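The pair is quoted verbatim below.
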Amino acid sequence: SFDIDCISSNFLQSVNTPVNDGPSPDDIKYIFRKIKESGKLFSLDVVEFNPTKTNTTDDLNIICDVLNVLF
């Protein structure tokens, strides 16, 4: 499970519980690259996105950019 609200609120706003000083999207992409290289990812739930919050389009672009690293 990937809780997108772990990403720093400096980058992502469309969550119910924003995290100050969380990792950046680039930090998450680094971790996801390592997961992909392991070849052990079989499924992934992406949770905690709230489309009623601000910057929805920008946030979706960030989320998609991060997730694309896995594929």
